[in-house]
Specification:
Elements lengths: L10 H9 L3 H22 L3 H17 L10 H20 L18 H5 L3 H9 L3 H12 L4 H8 L3 H22 L2
Helix pairs in contact: 1-2, 2-3, 2-4, 3-4, 6-9, 7-9, 8-9
Amino acid sequence: MDISFPLDYHERDLITACVRQEEWAIRKVYEDYYRLMMSICLRFAANENDAQDLLHDGFIKVINNFSKFQIGTSLPSWLHRVMVNSCIDHYRKMVRRKTEDIDQVYGNHSLDADAVSKYSEQEILNSIQLLSPTYRTVFVLYAIEGFSHKEIGGHLGITESTSRSNLVKARYKLQDILRRTHR
């Protein structure tokens, strides 16, 4: 079945059509923003199959929440936020968090920015995916998404110091993974 897209639609018309659950509009948003949403999911997932699952769960939330979209808001920013929140929700459901207080971290060193610059984006992403779900989630939320430790703690139900501790450990593990797998 071929679906034709209106040639002169505006974002408002697209959103209105999505709120009405019109297939052409939903398909258009999915196709136009697939790469953006998949890149977010790949940061949170252990592998591409898990990222696909996160993407589909997140996109269902996007479809179900189009009525909450406020005209004037950037559609890519709104999709980004819904997808990140969906990944956080998935983390909460699937992971039993085992965390330690920052005072228990000994001998860990932060990841050197110059050391990271010698790796490709794909090598870094692959290494992030090898982190445990807890470390990966805290690292992505802090280092990539720009959340504060207070925000991370609120989303994940952990203390700020636990978030900091997990970030330090994640950086140390990431450095170790990069050294071992990409010499």
